[in-house]
Model the fold of this input.
Amino acid sequence: MKISAAILIALVAVAALVSSGLSLTPNDPMLGQQPALTAIKASQAWDYETGGPTKVAIIGTGAGFTSTTIPDLPLSVVVTSDAPDPFDDVVGNYGASTSSASIIGSTGNNGEALAGVMWQSDIRVYKIVREGSNHAQVTDLDTAEAINDAVSWGAQVIQIDYAFTVEMPLTLVAVNAALFANRLVVIGVNSASAGLGYLPVNAGPELLVVAATDTVGNPLGYDGEGAQLDLVAPGNQVWARANAACCVDFSQAGTAAAFVTGVAGLLRDRLVGEWNVRRVLTAGATDLSPAGFDNATGYGLLNADCAMTMAGDMNNSLNVDITDAVLLVDMFGQPGGEIKYDVNNDGGIDLQDALISLAIFGAAC
Done:
C-alpha cells in the first residue's frame, strides 16, 4: 500500500505546524545550577516533549522523601529487601536513587527548585539495599524481585542503581525478561563494576550501559570502561534533591544513568518504541575523542536534542527531510522491513509511524 502525494503533503504540513512551537525556558529558580541539562541539550528536546504518562522504575536505595513530602516530585516507594522502611539512608539519606529520581522527574517550569528531564512522570523507586548497609550486601533475589515487580507494574524504562560486583544470575534472568517484554533497561556503571565484567552480558543489545563524565564529556575516575558501554552523561557534582530540605551535588554513575533514563522516558512519551529508543540515543550521541565508538565513552555524550531528531531520521543523515519522508512512504503498509521504519515497534509501518517521524520534519542535529 502506498500513500498518495496529497496525503504526504498534508502530513508534512501538519508536521511543520507541530514542530513550530515556541522554545520552553523553565522558570525553576535553581535552573542556573543545573549545567548538566545544558550539556545534554535538554532545553532543545523540551521543544518536542516535556514528559507524560511513561512509567519509570528505579531499582536501588529507596527515596529520601515521598511525594506527599515534596509534591514537586511524584513518586512511590517499594521495599523488596529486609529494610524496615523505604527511606534512602545509605549515605545519611543522600543515596543514589534519591538523586536519580530528582534528575529524572522533578516537575519543570513550576517555579519550584529544580527542573527534571521529564516534567511530568510516574516514578516508582525500589529499595533493595539492606538497612544501614552498602551495595555489596544487595542480594540477587531482592534485585530480581524488584525488576520483575517493575515490569508487572508497567514500567517502560527501568534504571538499576547498582554496581555489579558479583555474578547475579537471577537478576540476569529478570533483565532478560524485562527486555523481552519491550522494557528499556538502563544501568550506570563505575570502577566497582570491574571493567563491566559483572554486567548481565547476555541480556542483549537492548540494555543501555552508561558511565559518568563531566559536563563536557571527560571521563571520570569512577566511571566504567569496556566494549559494552553505550553512552556517557554528566555525573560529576550534579545538583539534585537529597531529601525534603532540597539539594546537594552528587557524583556517581547512577547520576549519569538518570539523565539517559529521563531522555528515554521523553522518547517513550512520543510513542517511540523501545528498540528505536536505544537506536536514536546511541546514533544521536555527541561523538567524543577518539572518533567513533570507544571503550571509554561508548558512542558519545548523551544528546537529547539529537535523540529527538534521530527518531524521524530514516537515512541516518542527522536531519529529517523529504528523503526520510519518501523512505517512510515507500515502506508504508508493510508488516516487516527494517525496524527503524517501524518507529513505535508495533509490528507494522503505518500512519502512526509517519506522524511520529514527520512531527519533527525539518529538524537537524
Notes: The chain has two domains: 5-18+313-358, 31-308.
